[in-house]
Amino acid sequence: VLGGLQQELLPGRRLSHILPREKAGRFLVKRSELREIVAEVLEIKPNELNPDTDLTTIETFDSVSVLTLMVELAEQAGIRMGPTDTRDLRYYRDIERLAEKQNVELTD
Amino acid sequence: MDKMATSITGMHYCVPKKRLTNEELAERFGERQLSSIVKMAGIRERRVVAKGETASDLAYWAAKRLLEDRRIDLKEIDLLIFASQTGDYQIPATACVLHERLGLSEKCAAFDINLGCTSFPYTLSVAHGMIGSGIARKALLLNAEALTTVIHAMDRGLVPLHGDAAVATLLEPTSGKGGFIGFVLGTDGKGYKHLMIPASGARIPRNEQTKKEIVDESGIVRTQEHLYMDGPAVFHFSVYKVPEVISEALAKFKLTVNDLDLVLLHQANKTMVDMIYRALNVPPAKRFYFMEMVGNASGASSPMLLAEAWRQGLIKPGQRTLLAAFGVGLSWGVTVIEWPENTGPAVQGSVEPGDKEN
Fold first, then answer.
1. What gap in Å lies between CA B331 and CA B75, rounded to an integer?
2. Alpha helical stretches, state H, B151-300
3. Rounded (10°) CA dihedral B91, B97, B100, B102
4. What is the interface pTM, i.e. ipTM, of the complex?
5. Of B37, B235, B312, the CB nearest to A3
6. Partner of B219 at 20 to 30 A CA spacing, among B18, B229, B306, B354?
């Protein structure tokens, strides 16, 4: 049927369940929460991610999951991933470095 | 308000009869391969042209039904603009083909505008300027796209997003209250490569090489003769640049989101649209979506959204609607329309092509 509002299409979509907390102009995000965000996009377990994890070797890592990663990092952790960042993205530590460059403080 | 006001006096759209569902795409690409993009896009079904059907065919039906509904004397139409990137021919302009097919007068100017997702605000502004300067009186604007004809069937990044459609809009001078509060148009040509068909014109002539299939590291298949999109670059532009230009436009028009009744955004994909809405703090009651059952119809997307909002009774005289489109170019266009008192009801009826032309 054509027509109709679409607000309810994605009811299950998790929106900002991990809201970055702001402290003295810096966003605070727990390292474990950041791992959760990335792991969920890549459909792996968070403990499979460490700074040296080569994301490009993960089966689900592709241009579509990179786009999803851009969305989720922006929405849930306040991390902006630019086109150059996505091209350079290889290791998990690249995401942590990107966060630190953008005034996002990763806490334990 | 501009000195010489114009207003939209009628709209109607047409989508192909053929449907492409997520179930069919899951068979083509595999369930898992498709799931993330389908979740992001918020699209369940697309309307796609059949073999041999073109954007101008859809435009013809949208225009025919609109002109009949409004009981327009064809001799009165003195401007026809066809805006598309999937015209019938490279030469001549498809507007000339439709001029003949619709039976318009020799006194009607007809030309094409080659723009994608932003074609509607651009087309409106051109016709608005031509009517305002006395060059034309009654303009028929046709925003049509059959992008699925230039997307490789195995491009799982683009196929799930796009559908085909055409929208006809009548634009006329208005003496009463209402019309366009203003236009803001812009371009970032540095991004022209982010959405393009490389071998589609004089720069890279088509040959055996351009027909060769390329499979990227994600398994996406295309040739140089098919549409390419740099997803991250387009996404970044859309969610960070577009809210900025909309805010700038509102400042120029001396308006805020509170002064608007409806905010309509190019239906690129639902996630992207929602991110822009949130960046602008647009409350849910002022949002409207129309892509779930039709897909992203490129240049036909934003006018179809407006036409459908009108059909659903969401646009009322005196209300202000902001319309923003963005994409190929990279380019953007923003306008705010104050809906006039004397526009009449929306065109209802079939939105699919008819069986016989006459």
1. 34
2. 231-236, 242-252, 270-279
3. -160
4. 0.71
5. B312
6. B18
